[in-house]
Amino acid sequence: MENKRKSLKKRQIFAFIILVAVVAVINVAGSFLFTRFDLTSEKRYTLSPTTKEILNDLDDYVYFKVYLDGDFPAGFKKLRRETKEMLDEFRAYSKYIDYEFINPAESGEEAEIMETYKQLYQAGLKPTDLNVQNSDGSSKQMVIWPGALVSYRNNTEIAIELLENQVGQSDDEALNASMQNLEFRLIDAVKKVTRLMKPNIAFVEGHGELGEQDVYDITKSLSQNYNVVRLKIDGKIDALIHRTQDTTRDVSAFPSYDAIIIAKPTQAFDERDKFLIDQYIMHGGKVLWLVEPVFATMDSLQSQESTVGIEQDLNLDDMLFKYGVRLNRDLLLDLTCAALPIRTGQVGGQARLEYFRWYYFPLLQAASDHPMVRNMNAIKADFVSSMDATTSADDIEQIPLLKTSDYTKVSGAPVFITLAMLRQTPDQRMFSAKGKTVAYLLKGTFTSLYANRIPQEIMDDQATDFMETSKPTAMIVVTDGDIIRNQIDIRTRQPLPLGFDQFTQITYANKEFIENCISYLVDGEGLVDIRSRELKVRLLDPTKVSKQRVTWQVVNTLAPIGIVILLGIAMSLIRKMKYNVVYQKDGIKQLSRSNKNKVLFGVCGGLSEYYKTDVKLIRAISIILGIGGIGIIAYLVFMLVLPKEG
What we know:
By secondary structure, the protein is α+β, with helices and mostly antiparallel strands.
């Protein structure tokens, strides 16, 4: 007996020494090896490779002043926590990330608070007014500034909004979207503040393209990251490309713009402008084409009930076909579509509006899993046509981006368009075409439209620097120009946010799509991939929280205590069973269910006799643990495991 106890003691000491040694080795290895484990299903705390690359390239401190400190509602506290955790992740990969959380109303002095608010507004942050409900049913107004000021090298400072606040979104939806886009917003701010020069983007004009008011909102948004200008080519050889000459008089040509946007032209391109655009692409330039092969507009239906959609010759078909797509002369009608407000009468001096599905306004969806369109909401289109990938471009990767639904009707031009169809029930058999592609990403090495068509003297002219094959580049082609067009407020005549429908009060994802397109063309896939991540925010049901609050408070209080007690009893049982033979020789009673002191199966009585404890105490503990369900499970386990007395 004594030898066994000594042997057991030696084994325990040896196991303890081994445990200490293992812990020490792990700690020493951890100081030299950096690794992180993300056990969340959507890898919420795993930064993208692009983010890590940007952070690793930092050479000086980027400082975040986050104005999300104070006594906020639960949703904003969660946004604060998520922001802090994301910044901590940033700091784990770069020592040059630092931050502080600030409460702008901390001073308590009204004059000082207002002065602080004024400074934040001038810096570019926007306040959010909240109506907070107190527990006693009363409410109070609260002003918060859900944003941050980001500085680099103590001189450059930019403002970023952390709260996605789109028109038509509920508070929960806005907070959910904000937390999903945190990594993108924060790393995008790092890239902006450390960028020495903004990329250049040009809206091409001179062919009946959309005017400044029509693209006001997207221009304003893009101007935060890019230098945006409007450009007339006018056949000028240096309109899109600038040329430099070295000491040996060799001429090199480079695109003057990182990307150009051709937004809904309505006049044909002449061959000289086409040639200049072609050579811009050959030299590595990027293009966002928003062109319509069929001309149709709602303006024609303002004063009459019907109009006709007719073919539109922009003189671009051969060019786009050479690059990899063919635009079809048709219009697509879709049962999955936006609503059109129609005045049906007048009530109390006010116009009475009714909303009807207008099949020429399809709601577009992602046609692939490309980061540009992944997890994107519906995009509203106006009079859109179908397009096909061609087989003439062997070295081009053709990736579909957007398509209509599986309930589409294709109408070849000319198309008779009438408001009378609003009063008719659609024949679903006519909407049998599966999703038709309306946007393609083309990337690779393009062949010039003018290859083998240019006189030799022009090809040899260094001033022209003609290229038959492009550098690796990319372009996006969309068969709807209105996808980039913002509405104009019918009352104030001011531009509205892109994607917002003032009649239905719905915000579509048009702006996000265009921003993703430009970001992809200029910066590559990295930031777009971050922006398209989907992080599920699992919200509690307010009704259940209110009804079951006390129950879960009791469970959360007693369950940990019960688990500790059960573990203690289990360890004791294992120890007793392990050394049962030795103890029996010494005349110690074995744990079993009591026959004398029982109410149901003698479990509580057996435990009280074994531990020499009052049976009432054991039963009281069992009843308390039974409220959370743990006591019932433990009782059943003991009933099955323990033998009967005798």
